[in-house]
Each structure stands twice: as C-alpha cells, then as structure tokens.
Design goal:
The complex is a heterodimer of chains A (488) and B (270). Chain A is an alpha/beta fold and 488 residues long. Chain A is built from 19 helices and 18 strands. Chain B is built from 11 helices and no strands. Classes of the chains: A alpha/beta (488), B mainly alpha (270).
Amino acid sequence: MIELKNAGKMYDVSGRNNPSIFSSIIGRNNSSNSPSLWAVRNISLNIGMGEFVGIIGENGSGKTTLLRLIAGITKPTTGKVRIKGEVASLLELGITFQPELTARENIYLYGVVMGLTRPEIGDRLGRITGLAGIGKFLDTRLAELSTGMCVRLAFAIAMHSDSPIILIDEALAVGDINFEKRCMDVFSRLRAERRTVVIAGHDINNIERLCDRVALLEKGRLVAVGKPKKIIKIYKRMMGKKSERESRKIKRYRTDIAYFRNSVKKGFYVRDYFDRHKDVTKESGYPHYRDGVPFEEQANFIAEYFSPEKALDVGCAKGFTVKRLRERGIDAYGIDISAYAVSSAPKSVKQFIKKADILSIPWPDNQFDVVSCIETMEHLHPKEIDKAIREMKRVTKDYIFLTMPLIAGEGSSRWRISRLPTDSRGMPHHGHWIYATRRWWIDRFREQGLERCPEMEQRAIRKKSLEYPEKVFIFRKNQEKRQNMRGK
Amino acid sequence: MLRIERAARDYLGRKLDKRVIRLIYLIWELTTTDFRLKYSSTVLGFFWSLLNPLLIFAVLYVIFSMFIRIDVPQYPLFLFLGILMWNFFMEGTLNGMSSLANKPNLVRKVNTSKPAIVLSACINSFMTFILNMAVFFVFCLVLRAKIGLMSSLILVMAGILLLIILALSLILSAYYARYKDLKHIWAFLLNAGFWITPVVYPITLVPQKYIPLYMLNPLARIITYSRRAVIYNSPPNPWGVFALAVFSALLLIICFRIFRKKSPHFADYI
C-alpha cells in the first residue's frame, strides 16, 4: 500500500549542491538565497494493494521524482509518504551491471539488489533467461552482449523479484514484439499475485492497456487521477494544445486568431486570454489601459477636427475615449472584442459600449459622423483587413480616423521585410502586430474606395495635438459629396 | 521448552530471518563482486593484495634495519605485522569512505541498505587482511617463530580493528557524500597517523612521560597487543583489551547513529 499525503520534493538547483567544507564554513552556501525547484508538490495519492497505476506527464513533470519518493530513495521535503511492504524500483535498468563479469554473475548481483536471495535466484535463473531470451549467453561476459540484451536481462530480473510493490520508469519499450508479449504475460502474473505496480512513462498505449488508474502530472502537480482512457484523453489534449500553441507562436498569429474567434471553434482563446488571464492580455497586445492623457488628446482631436454629432470608437477598450467624447456632448459609442475590457469600463459609459467584432459592427449603415479606430487595425489578421475597412466604411457617414504603427521606410512602396517575420502572403509581422508602411495602409483603404484627407492629416501632424501624430490617418467616405457641400 | 524454541524459531523465521538473510546475501554479493572487479584484467590478479604490503615491508625493512637501526627482537615479523594491520586500517577506511560515492546507482536508483554498502567495502578489506595474515604465518614458520595458543588473540584484535574501521567508514562516507574535501584531509591524517602509531618502531622508543597520551591512540594499542600475543607469546593486558572492545563498540554505535541520521539525504548529494 502506498500513501502520499501532500508530498513535495524541492531540489536546490543553484549548481552548488556539492559544496566543499571550506565554502560551507565561510557560509557561501547560504541556502536561503539559492534558487530552488519543486520537482513535485502537494501530491496526495493512495495506491492500494494489487493496483496497477500509471503516471504520465511530459518531460520534467516530476514522474521520476515521484517514483523516487515512493521507493524511499529520497525523503519528501514536505508532506508524508507511507509505504507498506518492500519496493523494487526500476528507475533505471541494470544499475549494477558490470561489463567485465558474466551474465550469470550479474544476474546474481542485480537480483540480490532487487531483494532476492541467492537460492531464490538460482531457482528462477531459467525463467529469467527465458524472458530475456539470452539462455545461450549465460556465461558470456556482459560486455560481449548487445545493449538490448542487457536491458532485457535487467528487466527480466526485476520482474522476478518478490517485492509486493514494483516501480517501473520508462522501461516498457525495450524489446521486440516477442519480448513485449512475454512482458505482458509477466504483468498478468503480477496481477494474479496481487502485486502493486506503478509505471511511469510516455508509452501511453502500454499504460492504457496495463493500468487500472492513471495519474497525470504537470509541472510537479497532480492534475488528474482516474480511468486510463479519460486521463490519457486529457493528457493528449493538453499536449496537443501545447503544440498548437507552439506552432501559433511560430506563425505569430496567436492574438489575431484570438480576436477573430470565428477561426477558432468554441471561442476558447477569447475567453482564455482576455477574461481569465489578465496578464496575458498584456502579452497579447492588449495593454491595461488606464484613463489618462492619450484619451484626452484623442477626444480633443476628434471633437475639434470633426465636430461630430454621433461617433463610434472601434476597439474602444475600456471606453475612456467614449467617456471623454460624451463629456464634450457628442453621442459616442464604442465596441470592443474583449469582454474583459468591456466589462471593466467605467460605469458612466458602460451602457454605450458593446462587446462586438469589427467584422460585424452592430449598427445599420451611415450612422456615424466619424468612426475612430485607434491602434486597432494592426491587431487584425492580414486577411481580415479588407473586410474590416468595408465594415467601417459601411457605418460611417463621413470620416474614418485611424492611428496605426508604421515601419520605417515611410512612403516607400516596398516592404521592409528583411528583419521582420512574414506570413504566407508575405505580410511582415512582428509579434501579433501588422507593421506596414504608410503607403501600404493608404492603398488598402483606396482599394475600398476611401479617399485620404491629406490637409487634415498635415494639420494634425503640424500641431502635434496627438501623442504620435505621424501615425494619424484620416479617410473620407465620399469625397464628392463633401466637396459639393463645401461648394454650396 | 520445545514450544518456546519453536515459537522463537517461527518468529525469527517470519519476521527477522528473511530480511537479515537478504541483507547478508546483499553484503556477500557486493563484497565478492568488488573483489572480482578489483583484480579483473590484471595479470597477477589477487596476488597484488599480497604483493603490495610485501613491497612496502621490503622497503621499510631495508631502511629500518640497515640505515636507521631499530633494535627489536624478531624485527621482520614485528614490522610485517605492523604494516599489515596499518594497511588494513588504511585501505578499510579509504574504501569505506568512498564506497557510497563509488556506487551512485545503488544510492540514487534503488533503495538498498546503505550501511550494507559500507560494510561490504570494509569486509572486502578484511578479506584482503586475512589473506595477508596467511602469508604472515608462513613467514613465521620460515623464521621459526614460536606460535602458541596466544596467537589466536589476533582474531580478537582484528575484530576490534574491523569495528573501528567500520565505524570510521560509516561516518566518513556519510560526510564524504557531501564534502569531497574529506578525501584529502583523511589522506593527510592517515599519513600523520602512520608515524604516531608504532608501525615501524617499538613503543619503547616513545618517551616515558608521553606513553599514556600515546596509548590513547587505539591503533597503537591494537598493534602493540597483537604483537605481544602473536610474536612474543605473552598475554596482553586484559583490561586494555576490554577497554578497546568497549571503545570500538561505542564508537560504532555513535557513528551508526550519525550515519542513519544523514542517510536520507545521500541520494540528493551523490
């Protein structure tokens, strides 16, 4: 019987765990400031007699440390480990093997270490060599046997120990199909003898086949315990998610896809990144905006240059600009993709802010005098940009006001892509941001039939009324109409 | 009476027997394996363990019987026995000290009895000592020394020496697991010990007023008593032998306690 209660094991990873007497005298090895690592932490697990338990988890998740605790090789730093009965541990195969000695001598030595006596080993010699398949080589020096033979031999000896508890670490994938079949026979014998077996490793198929219960470790913590099928499913999903995330990182589309959850089923990422992990929103390009000067500037700019009656802020975050605009008597609204941002908006503007997607702005056509889109477009997926522009064009009566980060090489028609990673369309990307030249952005808008207002942009740039005036873009929906009005 | 005996046997058979027998087999297997490995792929094999003290003996004998004359009856036997016992002590403690560190797999990968590992190293040295003693007795025959019943006392002395070696090995190996400096310190202490122990010279050369202090060295007592018993066939002071036995037993108990206290951390350090 194995009983773990809040067991934890901490290792000193300062690289100084072999200090000299000298250093310990002068007190350099002060453990209080040396970095430490919890290999396993807070593990509570009961394993009954005759149970087959698997332990799975990725590399470095603490499987081996857990086995070492159960084997009694190390003592837990915290918590308790109680074991009833002797333990045969196979953390590594053939630990006492001496290449200079014969196979027979090695069998005796290893068997004794595994808790057998000499006569007992003598009785089982035939079965051991049979399982390992090295009957002919009993009196050959071990150095002359193949590595596979040695490993099989070690496994065979350990499987014939009498200990009621057997711990196996990554030892199942050591032989061919025949050997595996023989191993399965041995395991069924162990099961019949009501031995407790704990298997740790990556060999999910064998673990699923053999074990009654499986424990899943992640970063030293016990994540789940239960029926093999269920736990392995969780494990696979966990690993899959991890690799998916990795590949996203490489493509640097993570946040874009997070924004446009249509491309991700069930909206997992949106919820995960924006609602639960607040610090992740920062990483995903969604800083925690605090109410402050930039919003004042933006609101002033919009009020002064466009003097709108009704305005929409796309990507309004917590709606600080909307709040300022409302203070200036403008009927302002805002949308943002992040439920977290919308829910944490100030009370006074909460009712005017909606959680909505830039790709489907929830208003009918021609509603707003100005649509402002501040530091938002660059977060889009490159393929979504055209649609977003069309959508903004649809809801605005007149102006679209944008700021966007630019890459160096202002005005050039060519990409500066040499140092930036690119996507499949050759679009330079940096992190989750689209970096483009001014010209490229303007071309995008022109393609959608929008015209620039250079004189207004120039005025903004000259007056420096915004924090980064060179990023300002102002587009007009209907140039002719405006000119006609002015003509009148 | 019979019932008690049977009950006792049953109890031992069930509870103690199995574990103790396993431990004995483990120690035996470790010892013999070490013995085999030590002389594997050498031409002279285990004769090296005989040759080594013989060579030292030859060198020291030449020096101390020709250059610096030490006037002791039966000096060759006197010197040889001293060297053998000192060698046993030196090798035993050195082997014992590094026994755990030399078998990291046994400490880190399985939960073997750690005292057994140290003990097997000591027994290994003891086996060498016994073989050497056989050579010594052949020497005695060659030199026509009188070997009486009294020489069997050498077994008692060797046993006491083994206890002391085991005790020192336990505590040294416990600290050697953590502090590898110990190897150098202990090598120095052994070097110094060689000269403050009557290996090459008789105790009569020590000034009379320092004798009580000098005899605090248990090895000095062991070697002196052994010589008296084996070479000169005179009984050693029984109280001295008794004190030695008590001392070594106490030392072993203390060292074993410390070893037990330290042993849970070996796997983290080795």
